[in-house]
Amino acid sequence: MIENPAYIDGRMLINGKLVESTTGNWLESIDPATEQVIGRVPAAGPEDVAIAVDAAQDAQKDWAALSVIERAKILKRYAARLSEEGERLLAVEVRDTGNTIAKLRHDISNAVRGIEYFAGLGTELKGETVPASGEFLHYSEHQPYGVVGRIVPFNHPILFAAKFGAPLMAGNAVVIKPSEQSPLSSALLGEIVAETLPPGVVNIVTGDGLGAGLPLVQHPQVKRISFIGSVPTGMAIQRAAAEVGVKHLSLELGGKNPMIVFDDADPETVASNAIGGMNFGWMGQSCGSMSRILLPDAIYDEVLERIVAKADAIALGDPSLEETGAGPMNNRGQLEKALHYIQAGKDDGARLVSGGVRPDGAEFEKGFWLRPTVFADVTPDMRIFREEIFGPVMSVVRYSGDFDEALALANDVEYGLTASIWTNDLRKANRASREVRAGYVWVNGVSRHFLGTGFGGYKNSGIGREECFEEMLSYTETKTVHVRY
Ligand code: NAD
Question: How far is residue 477's CA from residue 144's CA, in Å, rounded to a whole number?
Fold first, then answer.
């Protein structure tokens, strides 16, 4: 168990300085397990965003002028400090998000690995020479945009705020806008960045979507926006950006991800991976969660029974304890959204087979607690089949066992982020992975991300790929030059 952190009186990071907002307004943050206030951060407004963008713009020129080796050295120093401060970040993050310590530990190590990965890739941003004519030398080079605006969600606050290796190695400066729901770790991140990076290269403005996010999107000097969050916000950002100019966006959005099970799969393996893939340890608040389990008739009852037993056995409790299976949901809005969908599932005729209620016990009277929930006999006309809940609500769907029926069900939603396919038949696995409309597909696997392989969505789940070289390239624009000697 980690010690509870003291009250966090957080600051934002602008131009290397830890500052309050110009408005003097604050955002309080509460522990979702107890609803107690555990800290605050400044509530930035448009003026703060403008100051941060100016600072980034000034710093970017010198930053881009450094050699890639110099930039990599600085980023590695930053990654090392992040790692050294891991336990302190973890203690705050557990309290501020409600996610379990065991899960959050990976977020910190993944942030560190992500920075190190991109630090090593700088010299790969190579241009090309093209033999287009005999008179000229034709070549291309990749140049940074300048200032990148990065807006991130509440579910992996430190991971998403801290992993700015790709835009920085490409020579950009960034302004980060963390989620207002779990902003406290970004205050600690500001201290680490202030210690390790030149002033202004990374700025952090805390605030809500309309007060700080929107002005960042619409700032004329921010030509490249990197957004991770929900589909509606992603669409709002596209519209808002288009109102003021032509901007480059990457959008990592939501999912309603299918686990496609064929009848040769082992029921116990499928059941345990369905539970793992649903990310109940994050209370389902993970974009890649397998929230639709498509089971063939032949093994439907057996797998369902095992899933229910495992869901019933998940131990809810204090997220700072290593043995806790799941903590509370992140915030009241998320809890209410999940409860709304649980009611919709019942109203639409699905069969509630696990959870759906607040857990029993005095320790769960306050806070945003909900038992991991499983619905059986879900059909495509139901809202819990089609819409992203972003909560601990799994939909189990029965199909005949026919390949085409499974794929039609899998693809029958507006999302296309991840998919998981279960079979030992290689031919079936290959065909299914080709036909499923999703950007990140596991065959006989769930949840894991592999650095160096592109993560991102098809359909409304997004634009662009992260966690790979393509991500770094996406923070550059290509210039073509023709030289006559
Ligand atoms: P959200 O869209 O509500 O908010 C995300 C961020 O956008 C927050 O920082 C918020 O303040 C900001 N924001 C809100 N309105 C804005 C506006 N009009 N202009 C600019 N910024 C604005 O998402 P959330 O509830 O924090 O996170 C959950 C969502 O994120 C889910 O849909 C989930 O699937 C998605 N997500 C996707 C990925 C991925 O990699 N594809 C990863 C994690 C989460």
Answer: 6
pLDDT tens track for 307-332: 999 999 999 999 999 999 999 999 99
287 is catalytic: yes
CA distance 12 to 203: 8
In the Cβ-directed half-sphere of 129, how many Cα atoms lie within 13 Å?
A: 6
Give the three-state DSSP class for 48: helix
Q: How far is the CA of 228 from the centre of ligand 1 (A)?
A: 5
Look up the pTM and report it. Answer: 0.98
* 3-class SS letters over 98-162: CCCHHHHHHHHHHHHHHHHHHHCCHHHCCCCEECCCCCEEEEEEEEECCEEEEECCCCCHHHHHH
List beta partners, residue 399.
296
Phi-psi region of 198 (alpha: psi -120 to 50; beta: other; left: phi over 0): beta
252 is catalytic: yes
**Nearest ligand 1 atom to alpha carbon 179:** 9
Single out the catalytic residue among 93, 287, 466, 468. Answer: 287
- Of ligand 1's listed atoms, the one at least distance from the Cα of 230 is 32
CA-based radius of gyration for the chain: 23
Nearest ligand 1 atom to the CA of 462 is 41
**pLDDT for res 3:** 79
Q: Is 266 found in the same domain as 205? A: no
How far is it, in rounded angstroms, from Cα 25 to Cα 41? 9
Q: Whose CA is nearest to atom 42 of ligand 1?
A: 287
User: Do 239 and 221 fall into the same domain?
Assistant: yes
Same domain, 269 and 232: no
pLDDT at residue 1, as a whole number = 63
Asked if residues 64 and 144 have their Cβ atoms less than 8 Å apart, the reply is yes
Q: Is residue 56 within 8 Å of 201, Cβ to Cβ?
A: yes
Q: How far apart are CA 449 and CA 75, in angstroms?
A: 22
CATH number of the domain to which 335 belongs: 3.40.309.10
Q: Which of 200, 197, 205 is nearest to 178 (CA)?
A: 205
87 plus 130 within the same structural domain: yes
Q: Best substitution site from 230, 418, 458 to test ligand 1's pocket, by max atoms within 8 Å of Cβ?
A: 230
